[in-house]
Structure formats: C-alpha cells, structure tokens
Specification:
Length: 422
C-alpha cells in the first residue's frame, strides 16, 4: 500500500476520548508510505502519550510552542506539510481554527500552514448540534477544509447519536482525497506519489453533473409519528463526497440526516418520497449521472392525521398507497434509446441477494445496480462499512469485499467513469 508514498502528513491530535484511535491513524498513514509529524495538544496528552506516536511514526512528537524555539517549530511544520489531519477534532479546536486563534502549538502551526486541512470531528451529540459548532464547521468548509464525519454511534458515557469520530481508515481515505483534489489544481504543490498528477487522471469526473439521493424517507402518520426505515444516509453521502473530490458537480438530495454536507456539494433536503421525487425530477434534465442510493418508502399513508393519534382511542387503521418509483420512471424515460443520464440503483436485500439484484436491475432499467445484504451486522444500514455486488446491465459483475463506504463509492464511480468514456 503506497497511496501516500513520500507525502508529509501533519497529524494533530486534540483532547477527546477518541484520541486513542489516532495511534491507528498514524500506523495506517505510515503503512501507506507517508512521513508523519505528530502534534499533541495538552488535552490529548491526558489521553495518549508521546511515546506511542514516536514509536509508530519513528519521528519526534511535538507538544509545546516553547520547545526548540531556534528552529521555529510551528512555521517549519506548517510549511513542510503536504496535508494536515486533525483526528479527533474537538469542538474547542474547531472553534479556535474558525476564529483564527493560535494559543498552542497545534493551532499556531495550522495558522502557518497552507496545505489541505482534513478534520475528523468528535464530540457529544449536543455539542455537534449546537449552533456555534455548526457555524464553525461551515466556516471551515467555506475556507476549503475537508470535514469527514462525525458518524452516528455509541459515544462516551453510553449514549448514542451523531458525534462519533470516523474510523481511522475513513480518515486516511479523506487525506488521500484531499491530496488528489490539491494535485488536480493548476498550482497544486504536493510531494511524493501525488507530485505531477494531472486533472485527467485524478479528476476523472471533471465537468460531469451527478445527482445522488441519500437517506431514508419518512412518511407522516400524524404530527408525531411516521413510517420510516433504518437508512442513515452514510452510503449516499459518501458517494456525493467522493464524486465531488473527483471533480463532479454534485447535487445531493437528502432525506432527514444529521450528516454534514460534503465540501463542494449542493444539498437539497427533503422528507417524504414525494418530495424526493419532485426534487429529483426538478434537476434531472441537467444531469449526466443519477445515483439512487436513498431508501425510498414504497408506500405512504393515504391521509395524515392533523393531530396526534391517542393511544386510548385504540389502534388506528392506516390505509397505505404506493409512492412513485423514482428509479423505474427514470429508466422508462430512456426507452427511446437515450444513454443519459447514466442510472445507478441500490438494492438492500436480505434473501437471495444477487438474484433479487439482477431482477431489480432489469425491472428498473438501470445501467448499474449495487446490491448488498442488509441483514449483516457489518454492512448495510447504520454502519461505516459495506460489502456489495456491483451488477452491470451488460452482464458485468464486481464483488466488493468488506470496505469503508468511501471505498465502495470509489468502486461504483469507477464503473460510472467507464460508462461515460464508452
């Protein structure tokens, strides 16, 4: 694995419980060929020690502005880095970066750095959802920072929700994507295996217009209750993020989700299947590719109660009516032989997975269909990994082993690029 051969990575570790995972990040970066300089905040030192990172990276670890003054440590680290990764990025560190504060070695170094910046937020749900944190995150995105996560999962103390740091491999993939994005720009200057890369190689979706749907729709029963599903939107958001990093102009039609909007992506929020239907067809004429990763409800209540249904009134009888089939309608529009937009569907199955996927591929008129077994604990809904089979209408078949959802997205988009070129 030499995806980062010769690349200089500044790894910043801030003071959150997730700091213990930063050692895995360091090991993965070194294993990918990178040279890693680690900076620990004072808070991080309460969770992890410098010896861990010196052993993993083979390089000295820095913690204080007042160390090695003669070499201007913060300026040297900032100038020499090809990319900076903050893992975990606490709410406090994000606030300081958004405000341009520089009161420790990490923030001082980052203020002197001009390289791509990747942040992996980690904090309690209430902190992540606070208006100040969301504002700071958006400010950092607008300045070009790449935010990856946070994920939805179990947090310190046993509670659960958005705020969990992404898996180490996902963070490393984000570093690679950030470097590819920089290398594709006319003045992009990076070292090692990324030096000299061209837009034609790394930005293979440049100028391509891609629409992605993500998440699970909600069909209201009354003002309180709804029919829904377990989709978190992680696969769709990963597709949108990877497509944008490869140069695509991306519109993300998102059902309810707490996931952050990927950098450079236009997000359209919807709730119901009908709203998603109208949003997709409002944009369809401008699209080259449509990726239908959302879990769209097949049925909706025929009517919605205007006030909360009371338990003491007895179990309600709910009549269901079918929702429009967005992918099938998109496929039907191309019956005249048109080859655009390229259509990619998803099939979440639990039985006879591949046979069900092949039947859906033909029935929907899609070009590609990603089928996966959502009964597995480590793939499908609400997790950061997936395993899938990518089916092609021409008979092609690619089996994707257990991988991060970003890696699965890369395989899917590779197939899309092949079709665009054909």
């Amino acid at each position: 694995m030499e995806r980062l051969d010769g690349v200089r990575v500044l790894l910043g570790v801030s003071g959150g419980i997730a700091a213990y995972k930063a050692g895995i990040v360091a090991r993965l970066l070194v294993g990918a060929g990178a040279s890693v300089d680690t900076v620990l905040t004072r808070g991080a030192e309460r969770f992890v020690g410098t010896a861990t990172f010196e052993g993993l990276t083979g390089r000295p670890v820095r913690t204080e502005v007042w160390e090695d003054i003669a070499t201007q440590t913060h300026v040297g680290l900032g100038r020499s880095a090809d990319v900076a990764l903050i893992y975990p990025a606490t709410a406090h560190v994000m606030a300081k970066l958004a405000g341009g504060l520089a009161d420790d070695l990490l923030t001082t170094t980052l203020l002197a750095a001009t390289c791509p910046l990747v942040l992996a937020p980690a904090m309690h749900t209430e902190m992540w959802q606070h208006a100040a944190t969301r504002h700071n995150a958006e400010v950092l995105r607008q300045r070009g920072a790449h935010l990856v996560g946070p994920d939805d999962g179990v947090l310190m103390g046993g509670d659960s929700g958005p705020g969990r740091v992404v898996d180490p491999q996902v963070a490393v993939d984000a570093v690679v994507a950030a470097l590819e994005d920089r290398a594709a720009t006319p003045d992009g200057q990076v070292s090692g295996s990324f030096a000299g890369r061209t837009a034609g190689v790394d930005r293979d979706l440049e100028g391509t217009r891609v629409l992605v749907t993500a998440g699970g729709t909600r069909e209201p029963i009354d003002p309180v209750r709804f029919l829904g599903n377990r989709s978190s939107g992680k696969m769709g958001f990963a597709l949108a993020e990877v497509a944008a990093s490869r140069g695509a102009d991306v519109v993300l039609v998102a059902a309810p989700s707490t996931l952050p909007t990927p950098a450079g992506v236009q997000r359209v929020d919807v709730t119901t299947a009908l709203e998603m239907y109208h949003a997709v067809f409002a944009h369809i004429d401008a699209m080259d590719v449509v990726v239908k990763a959302a879990a769209v409800a097949d049925f909706r209540p025929s009517s919605t109660a205007t006030s909360k249904l009371k338990k003491d009134a007895g179990a309600p009888s709910i009549e269901l009516v079918p929702n429009p089939d967005i992918l099938a309608e998109l496929g039907a529009r191309r019956d005249g032989g048109a080859d655009r937009p390229i259509l990619v569907g998803f099939a979440a199955e639990t039985d006879d997975v591949e046979a069900a996927g092949l039947a859906k591929l033909k029935r929907k008129g899609a070009d590609l269909l990603v089928v996966n077994d959502v009964s597995a604990n480590d793939a499908g809904f609400e997790v950061d990994t997936n395993r899938a089979i990518l089916l092609d209408r021409d008979g092609g078949r690619v089996e994707v082993p257990l991988s991060s959802k970003a890696e699965v997205a890369g395989v899917v988009l590779d197939a899309v690029v092949a079709r665009l070129r054909a």
